[in-house]
Structure formats: structure tokens, C-alpha cells
Design brief:
Number of strands: 20
Order of helices and strands: HHEEEEEHEEEEEEEHEEEHEEEEEH
Distance between the termini: 90 Å
Helix content: 10-25%
CATH class of the largest domain: Alpha Beta
Number of domains: 2
Radius of gyration: 33 Å
Strand content: 15-25%
Oligomer: single chain
Shape: elongated
CATH architecture of the largest domain: 3-Layer(bab) Sandwich
CATH superfamily of the largest domain: minor pseudopilin epsh domain
Length: 448
């Protein structure tokens, strides 16, 4: 009996050892199983990070559009409350002249009417009492006008388009006419002569204005040829008009601070629909260097959207109807502007392909294309620069639209439909949106 108990106990212990060994073997994982689990985890993490990044990017774009809309609405509210024009000045990004990364509040134009004036004909060679031409172009102020002090304090603005051709010609950006910033500045004051209801407004140059010579130069000749002989400097016998109203350009408000868009979010000016006066001037010559210079030039330093006390856009922008500001990611804008994509070459008259680092985003003047008559032609002449094609897909973007005649501000998605060739008009995708501003103009597909 004792022998049977010992044998039974040994068998039990042996079965226990086998069971424990099996359990020990089952508690581990093979290398293949571990690799499969790790791979699945990496895929899930990647999908999660991509979804989170997409969500964050989308929110940044929406946040930037909301911030821009809020600033514009704030400017309109300030104008209504102050009963004076107020507005917003878009600030060009310091590292990229084709983008806006901030804005600042500005005050409307002020009127100045101190002192008395006298109208004269031009006398550039300073020959006493002998005019250089019959047109009345000079407004001379007395000591009480104080125009030179206004100029020294930066209130008089600047007008460089001497030839009135919309192009920055040689010499126009150099002192004493210009300021050398590479932009065709056209933010000069206007003068009304005489100051009463019968007066006419004229844009003026200030490059002849000095403390010793209180002179404003009319861009267009005075409507009345004068009463003196056309070779005399003084235009009117016995005085002529002596009152005036000087409208000064908008200025940054004293307590205003720059408002920056969210990190990585900008306004792409090339893809926006903005006034022609904001865009860089065309180069003087049709060369590759000139083209590269054109597309690296900054936009105007005075991109102002000004509201009247009635809440509508006032000033030169009032007649533009619609302004569309393209809000997008900086990296996408840099890709389409700097790196170049399919369709970003120029073809010379002889058929030679010329590659450029900064292809224009829009192909019709004056929105960034080659000037009329230039022998270098962009191929194709359409908006977008392949931004809707598979070669250069663009991420999140929104349009903020300003309706100048009503003061309405709204945000919309872009219409990325690409069903037609924008050059030939035939059916078929060409990588360019057919009508990117459709939703904004029809009030569809709200982006907020």
C-alpha cells in the first residue's frame, strides 16, 4: 500500500510539473506576434497623429479667418462709434513679401485747411516770372499752411507714379520722389480747390515741398487755365482761388498694436482678389532677372480697408465691389510660390523654356502676371498655379470676403471644381480652379 501511495504521489507531481511547464510556455509571445502588435500600434498612432494634425490645421485656418473677420468688424464698429473713418491695414510678412501675417487699426483721413494758397504754372528752372508750360500745376501755400511740418511728421503720404502708368519706372522710387522700398507707393494726399462745394479734388505730389518752398504739385492740371498769359508763373490776375481742403492719407491709430494671425497661417496675396494698387509694380524690362525681381517685390505698404461712419467701405476701395482674401497655411503658399510646380515655366517668343523660382499665382494683369506686350508669356495664363492638381495639393484654406458697398464680411470655402481647361475652354481638368470665388459671390458653403 505504501508503494502505491508513493507511486501515485510521484505521478501527481509529474503531472503538475508538466502542467506548470505548459503554462510557462503559454505565458510568452513569439517574435512574430510582437512585431505584428507593434506594427498595428504604429499604424494606429500614425492615423491618430494625422487626424489630430489635420484637425489642428483646420482649426488654425478657421481661427485665422475668424480673427481677420473680427478685426475688420471691429474697425467697422469703431468707425460707427467714433463717427469718423476707421479701418485695418494689412501688414506684409517680414520674411515673405507675398503674404500678410498681421494687421493694425488705422484712422481715417484728416482734413487740413490752415493758411491760404496761390495757383501757379510750373517753373522748374526757377526763371523769374517765366513758366515752363501753360498748365496750372503748382499750389503754393503761405507760411500758415504748415505743409512741410506735416510732411516731416509723415502725414503727407507718398505718390511715386509720376507717369500715371501704374508701373514703377526708373527714378520714381528714388528720393526726392520715392523712398526706395521697391513698391509703387500711391498713398498721397488729395486737395480740394476751392474749399467750398464748387471745389474739385486733385491728387498731389509732395517731392517739391520744402520748409522754404510750401509747394504741392497737382498730378493733373487745374481745371481753369488761369487769367494771366500762359507763359507767366502766376496763374490768376488778382488772386484767384485762395481756399483749400487737404485730405491726408490714413494713419495708424496712436494706441493701436499689431494683430498677428495664428502661427503658420497667412493671407496669400497672389491668390487673393485685391485692388491693383496693392500689387507690386511690373519690372521695367522683360528679363528673367526682372521677372524674379518682380515676384520678390513686396506688396504696397498701405493696404488699407477703411470704413465710413455708415459702416460701408470708403475711399478708393469703395468702387471695387468685392475683396477676397485667401487664408491658407504658410507652407502651402511657400510651396506654390517659391518651389514651383507643373506649369510654372515661361516660354519665350522663340520657344525657349525659361524656369523661374517665383512663378505668378494669377495669370491676368494686373493680378501678378507679365505686363501686356511682354515677350515672355506664362503657360498657361490661368489662376491657381496648379494648386488644385495632384502635383501640388493644397491643404486647408478659406476665403474671407469684404463686400465694399454694404460693409458685409463673410467667410467661405473655395470652389475647387476643375472641370474645364481655363485656356482653351474645353472640357477637362487642367489643375486650376474654374471659379474659386463662386461660393463667396453666391453665398454658399459657409466656412465658419
Amino acid at each position: 500500500m505504501k508503494s502505491l501511495r508513493v507511486t501515485s504521489q510521484c505521478c501527481s507531481q509529474s503531472r503538475s510539473l508538466v502542467r506548470d511547464k505548459r503554462l510557462l510556455n503559454r505565458s510568452g509571445f513569439t517574435l512574430i506576434e510582437l512585431l505584428v502588435v507593434v506594427t498595428i500600434m504604429l499604424i494606429l498612432v500614425g492615423m491618430t497623429v494625422t487626424a489630430i494634425d489635420f484637425s489642428f490645421t483646420s482649426e488654425r485656418i478657421r481661427s485665422g479667418a475668424r480673427q481677420l473677420a473680427s478685426a475688420l468688424e471691429g474697425a467697422r464698429d469703431r468707425a460707427i462709434f467714433a463717427r469718423e473713418p476707421r479701418g485695418l491695414r494689412l501688414l506684409v510678412d517680414p520674411d515673405e513679401p507675398r503674404m500678410v501675417s498681421g494687421m493694425i487699426y488705422i484712422g481715417g483721413a484728416k482734413n487740413w485747411s490752415e493758411g491760404r494758397i496761390q495757383l501757379e504754372r510750373l517753373d522748374l528752372d526757377a526763371t523769374p516770372n517765366v513758366a515752363d508750360g501753360p498748365e496750372v500745376l503748382i499750389v503754393r501755400g503761405d507760411a500758415a499752411c504748415g505743409w512741410s511740418a506735416l510732411k516731416d511728421r509723415g502725414f503727407m503720404g507718398l505718390f511715386e507714379d509720376i507717369n500715371l502708368n501704374g508701373i514703377l519706372d526708373p527714378g520714381e522710387d528714388s528720393p526726392p520722389i520715392g523712398n526706395g522700398n521697391g513698391v509703387l507707393d500711391r498713398d498721397a494726399p488729395r486737395i480740394k480747390i476751392p474749399a467750398d462745394d464748387n471745389g474739385t479734388w486733385y491728387t498731389v505730389r509732395t517731392d517739391l515741398l520744402t520748409p522754404a518752398n510750401q509747394i504741392l504739385y497737382l498730378i493733373s492740371a487745374y481745371r481753369d487755365p488761369g487769367t494771366t498769359p500762359p507763359n507767366e508763373v502766376r496763374a490768376f490776375q488778382g488772386g484767384g482761388p485762395s481756399t483749400y481742403l487737404l485730405e491726408l492719407p490714413p494713419r495708424i491709430l496712436p494706441d493701436a498694436q499689431p494683430i498677428l494671425l495664428p502661427e503658420g497661417v497667412v493671407i496669400d496675396l497672389d491668390a487673393s482678389q485685391v485692388p491693383a494698387d496693392w500689387r507690386p509694380a511690373a519690372p521695367p524690362a522683360a528679363t528673367v532677372m526682372a521677372l524674379d525681381l518682380q515676384y520678390s517685390r513686396p506688396y504696397s505698404s498701405h493696404m488699407d480697408i477703411l470704413f465710413s461712419p455708415r459702416g460701408v467701405v470708403t475711399g478708393p476701395l469703395a468702387a471695387t465691389g468685392l475683396i477676397h482674401l485667401y487664408v491658407a497655411e504658410r507652407k502651402d503658399v511657400v510651396h506654390t510660390v517659391d518651389e514651383g510646380v507643373t506649369g510654372s515655366t515661361y516660354v519665350a517668343a522663340g520657344g525657349t523654356v525659361i524656369d523661374t523660382r517665383r512663378p505668378p499665382r494669377f495669370g491676368t494683369t494686373p493680378t501678378g502676371s507679365l505686363p501686356a506686350g511682354n515677350p515672355l508669356l506664362q503657360t498657361p495664363l490661368v489662376p491657381g498655379n496648379e494648386q488644385f492638381g495632384p502635383e501640388a495639393p493644397i491643404g486647408q484654406r478659406l476665403l474671407l470676403s469684404v463686400f465694399t458697398q454694404t460693409g458685409k464680411i463673410s467667410t467661405h470655402q473655395l470652389n475647387t471644381a476643375d472641370l474645364f481647361n481655363n485656356v482653351s475652354g474645353t472640357t477637362g481638368s487642367d489643375g486650376y480652379a474654374d471659379n474659386p470665388f463662386l461660393f463667396a459671390t453666391q453665398g454658399e458653403a459657409q466656412g465658419q
